[in-house]
Amino acid sequence: MTTFGIPAKAAIFAEYSSLKELSEIYKTDVFRDNEVLHIGGGSNLLFAHDFNGLVLHSAMKGISRYDKDEDTAFAIVASGEKWIDFVEWCINEGLQGAENLAGIPGETGASAVQNVGAYGVEAKDIIHNVECFDTLTGTTITFSNNECRFAYRDSMFKHEGKGRYIVLRVSFRLRKSTEARNLEYGPLKKFAEDLGHIPSIRETADEVTRIRASKLPDPSVTGSAGSFFKNPVVSTYFYNDEMVCKDPDIPFYKVDDHRVKIPAGWLIEHAGLKGYRIGGAQVYPQQCLVIANTGDATAEDVINLSRHVVDTVRRKYGVVLQPEVNFIDTSIEITILGSGTSKGVPEVACACRVCRSDSQFDKRLRTSALVRTHGLDILIDASPDFRQQALSHDIFHLDAVLITHSHYDHVGGIDDLRPFCAEGAVSLYMKEDVHNDLGKRLDYCFRENPYPGVPTLKRIIIDGSSTFFINGLKIIPINVMHGKLPIVGYRIGDFAYITDAKSIPEEEMTKLEGLKVLVINALRHRHHFAHMSVEESLDIIDRLKPQDAYLTHFNHEIGLHSELEKELPENVHPCFDGLKIHLS
Q1: Are residues 422 and 461 in the same domain?
Q2: How far is CA 486 from CA 353, 413, 469, 533, 551, in A?
Q3: What does the pLDDT read at residue 152?
Q4: Do residues 298 and 339 share a domain?
Q5: Is residue 75 in a domain?
Q6: Interior CA angle at 500 toward 552 and 360, to 5°?
Q7: pTM of the entire structure?
Q8: Which domain holds residue 312?
Q9: Which of 105, 111, 164, 199 is the most buried (most CB within 10 A)?
Q10: 227 catalytic, yes or no?
Q11: Which of the following is catalytic: 43, 107, 131, 153?
């Protein structure tokens, strides 16, 4: 059920052909107790492993036409209809608008999620509204075109709506005409000139299909997901001052007065990667934007090749390519970027044996962590040492930042997020008190007309009790008390991260049951009014019984790392800067 043709199994699979059937699935324990993934035609997915959860698929069918006036008609299309069938229906009905999008694989429901596009047209240009099922409320909701927040290969369904909303039907606004209209894109403009007349929507669709077949592999013969990478958007300044000096022939398309779009396929080809292979995965020679399965590729081959492409292009051109393909990978990798408290270790002007230790394990930057899962890179807290942490761990992309609270040792590195804002605002998730505090302390970032070059940040308020989603990844906030200050920890899958806590309310403890890994603060051995001691953290661990637990947020009173490690129970470990924790 995926166009890559790489085998993967789901623990549970369910298909529905009506809203009633979907509602019945929604009410089951299977839906509530498992990670849920909804797929369409599988043309934009790469399963890194078998999926240990519930996979849903729409079998809803049907297309209805409603004529508004002599010029306009609406098509209401069920999510399970194949996109190519819908385009063919439009042509047969004499409705203009979708012909440039002929030959795109996948299903109509996914067209709204991905905002599919080709040859100068995007789905957003013809979408009127999108009807969805809300998995948080169990009700239906309809979003207007504007509410979908469409952008280049993007929509709100790929961000906060991912994992929450299931597309049921898409309404398209089409023009009653058999004459093609959008012919400014290079190959189509030449096609029209060669014909000597304005092509019909049938002629245009046939030409688009022919061009696609000449560049992109047929997934029934050669597995692929079509375009693997998005075309990067960079500032005009960066293009003129950094890229042109490396190669004056780099093509670009103007986005606005400050940004340009660079063809990713051109960058990959001119980085010398045309035809490059790792295992059974290959940069497709006819179109370098594609990674193809030559017949025996594994998911690991594709992932390793995509990383090699990203690294090579970044080294040569300074541009970070972002995958258009969704990596379905439920494994979690946590990197402890910093394990020290607000003063760090060694402390300034301290001559204790810990601060004088030569061991790298006793040198602790301020607390933060990087979580990699589901193809996402998520930072928990931006400590004042974030710049150093990012350089040490080669961090060049972030999808979001989770903030636990607004104390300086957890937010002092927010200004250093500016390199990650090149393609758009970095989303920061926080409680309302943190939102208000940062608005005052970092007011220069949030002004109506900010100074050029400041970080472009999007503050997203969470209420601390409700589950939310980041690009489909479920995040469960954990309310804890930092002395008298309520702050949040976070649970992601079978991993939870809690820092600066003195106590965890009983009602929040249930959110932490069944963990594989718990990272929790333990300032020192003796009592502190706002932080757990080692003994208090061990009591929490003993109650929750995670498979493994890691202590973090130490000050120098914790003692030498080597001595602390020997004191702890077998499944409890002291964090250190650079520690990597893997959950399969």
Answers
A1: yes
A2: 34, 22, 22, 18, 20
A3: 82
A4: no
A5: yes
A6: 25
A7: 0.82
A8: 223-328
A9: 111
A10: yes
A11: 153
Which among 105, 115, 65 has a CA at the least distance from the CA of 81?
Answer: 105
> Which residue, 328, 350, 380, sits at the end of a domain?
328
| Per-residue pLDDT tens over the stretch 537-548 | 999 999 999 999
User: So what's the pLDDT on residue 184?
Assistant: 84
Tell me the residue type at 266.
Answer: W
- What CATH number has the domain bearing residue 116? 3.30.465.10
In a domain, 452, yes or no: yes
- Of 265, 295, 328, the last residue of a domain is 328
Pick out the chain residues at pLDDT < 70.
Answer: 423
Same domain as 468, residue 374: yes
543 has catalytic annotation: no
CB contact set of 421 (below 8 Å; sequence gap of 6+): 455, 456, 457
Express each pLDDT in 549-571 by its tens digit.
Answer: 999 999 999 999 999 999 999 99
Assigned domain for 10 exists: no
- Report if residue 271 sits inside a domain: yes
Which residue among 324, 347, 508, 536 is the active-site one?
Answer: 324
Sheet holding 233-235, edge to edge: 233-235, 259-261, 253-254
Of 111, 171, 224, 227, which residue is the catalytic one? 227
- Whether residue 488 sits in one domain with residue 468: yes
Q: Which of 261, 262, 275 is nearest to 305 (CA)?
A: 275
Does one domain contain both 303 and 374? no
Beta bridge partner(s), residue 293: 223, 281
Are both 253 and 310 inside the same structural domain?
A: yes
Burial class (CB in 10 A: 0-12, 13-18, 19+), 197: exposed
- Please give the backbone phi and psi of residue 412, each rounded to the nearest 5 degrees, phi first: -65, -15
Handedness of CA 305, 307, 309, 311 (dihedral sign): negative
